[in-house]
Amino acid sequence: MSIMKSLMGASLMALMAGTASAEDIAITGGTAFTDGGKGKVENATVLIHDGKIQSVTAGGDVPQGYRTVDAAGKWVTVGFMAAGTELGLREVSLSGNITDHNASKASNTIGMDAYYAFNPASPVIPNTRIEGVTRATAGLTASKDMWEGQGLVIALAGDDMIVRRHAYVALDMDEGSANSNFGSRAALWDAIITKLEHARPDEDNDGDKDDKKAKKPKYDSGKEALDRVMKGEVPLMITVERRQDILHTIALKKRFGINVVIHGGAEAWMVADELASAGIPVVLDPIRNLPEDFDTLANTGAAAARLHAAGVKVAFLPPDTHNSRLVVQSAGNAVAMGMPWDAAVDAISKNPAEIFGVAGSYGTLEAGKDADVVVWDGDPLELMTSPDAVFIRGEEVPLVSRQTKLRDRYKDISRAPAFKK
Asked: Residue 57 domain-assigned?
């Protein structure tokens, strides 16, 4: 029952965080970074009004009525973002309950909308946000074929945590997908190219001029999803690892003129110049450094640094959904493998915001943007650093999760119940 109460408490906090009216906040005295990993401001005063960034100035005055948060000697950044998660869609995979990230029985896999499965009360969300991760993408990662539906961008607190619905359409084109769907990449790529050709807008069709003969089109969520892709409204996020498949992905973008994002990209660094020229970003896990199969023979921990050096926009995946908070640590690993510090911070802030279409409201500490702000006790990419305060859309969230509750309950062994022999 105690564990159940902890679960309920974490879920309740997830639902209640952000429900109070936003107060005016002044974060003073810290070293702030206003533009991802750039825009360093010493002795910064960060003003938050009505849930938005009001200003960031060096040594600025605090207006009357603002609650002051002392950040002297600390670092202040935008809240970070984890791309490619299943947050709110996946709990305990072995529990016997539904794991909503997997739609192995779905018929219309293209149109699947993660919105309908998202659970804002997931205890994995507080576990993530207390480590300074305030935004994420969330989507399905398995289906009966190569399509994985439409993903979301979410904030990790608030009354309405959906920041952007239909943020991308996901497509799996790696070795496993080829094997499970058609048995050959030749068939897999042919199926995708044919599908996209059929989805092209018919420019020669002026519509049925005879209103009497015109029929009301049936609702088709898959068609609507592909229409968004073909119109350039959302990116097609394609999971590919092998160099040759990445070259096919570049050709796909050129053929159809759509926005493409590479997910995974173990061998993307081998064609970094081509990706930069095509304007294709790569979302990858920077700590992958060993071959996992024949698709990933060229895996290296230096991939992120090499892609950045070539001019490719990079964003970071966490190791897995339950460890989404470790995306910050992974960024530190990327720095250790040669990526500039500011570029690694960009990869968990402004870059994913731009890739997934939410840069207008999030990603930097600029006036008018949502006040996702974290006060750190040191360099956020250092392993032993942790947040002292986390604000999501202007609301300070408690640094409490199911895990911290269990820690606090059992850390004092003298309080443990006695067991009779």
From this structure: yes
Instruction: Identify the bridge partners of residue 262 per DSSP, sorted by sequence position.
Output: 238, 282
Both tokens assigned to 275: 């990706």
> Which of 34, 70, 36 has its CA nearest to residue 55?
34
Q: What's the mean per-residue pLDDT of the chain?
A: 90
| Non-local CB neighbours of 198 within 8 Å, separated by 6+ positions | none
- Read off the amino acid at residue 151: G
The answer as to whether 321 is a domain residue is yes
Tell me how many domains the chain contains. Answer: 2
Secondary-structure percent of the chain, ordered helix, strand, coil, rounded to 5: 30, 25, 45
Range of the domain at 130: 80-362
CA distance 231 to 112: 19
> By the 8 A CB rule, do 321 and 285 touch?
no
Tokens 């936003």 identify what position?
22
Cβ pair 324, 124 in contact under 8 A: yes
311 and 207 within one domain: yes
Mean pLDDT of 279-286: 98
For residue 231, how many other CB atoms are within 10 A of its CB?
11
The pTM (predicted TM-score) of the whole model is 0.89
